[in-house]
Amino acid sequence: xxxxxxxxxxxxxxxAIVQINCTYQTSGFNGLFWYQQHAGEAPTxxxxxxxxxxxxxxxxxxxxxxxxxxxxxxLKELQMKDSxxxxxxVRDRSSASKIIFGSGTRLSIRP
Amino acid sequence: xxxVTQTPRHLVMGMTNKKSLKCEQHLGHNAMYWYKQSAKKPLxxxxxxxLEERVENNSVPSRFSPECxxxxxxFLHLHTLQPEDSALxxxxxxxxxxxxxxTDTQYFGPGTRLTVL
Lengths: 111, 117
Known about the structure:
Radius of gyration of chain A: 14 Å
Number of strands of chain A: 11
Order of helices and strands of chain A: EEEEEEEEEEE
Oligomer: heterodimer
Largest interface: A-B, 25 and 26 residues
Largest sheet of chain A: 6 strands, mixed
């Protein structure tokens, strides 16, 4: 079967660093996405990993370990505008057209 | 990202009504999607279209009927809905189907907040 787990809620302080973890189980892993979704708005693409390792993009980095079925999104120098839900999503070879989303992690930034 | 638009943004309807949700993408993409997002639940894929052909139908009740007249427009026709169908309905598009590569990055519209009374 397919399953994606990520924490429901996290809180962090402005200027700090936070790591949001995602574990997944799929029958045929073929790529992992992270999306950001502000309340009442559409999800927006943040990162894509298909090979093991760290992908850095400005203040955001995403890491993947395929052998462990594990990814994390690292946010540095947190800003109040980073308060949002962060969605982990996995592409599975069992369905060419399907990407499976996790329930999302709601991140709150405090001053 | 304003490449995907959805109308209406909010919709309240009774269980006996018929309504339609509209999605339009201005990105020149070949694939379009309908998702349902309920509170505290993962995004649920409902339908996938590629070049106006339906390629995925995720056991969605027949009270939801999609239509894709061309590669830029996608509709979701609603009739005799239930209160549990109340949710945020998101449309997305991608260059191609997510078979491989990064060209399948999905761009989402702002969604339609649907309330069924």
